Amino acid sequence: MALTKKGEFWYGTTSGDTQAELRSYSVANRHEAVRFASSKCDCGCRTFALQTDEEAGVAIRTCTDCGQEHLMGDSADYVEKAAPEAHECVCENEAFELMSGVCVYEGTHDVRWYYIACRCVECNLVGVFADWKCEAGDAAAFLAKV
Question: pTM score, two decimals?
Answer without folding.
Answer: 0.94
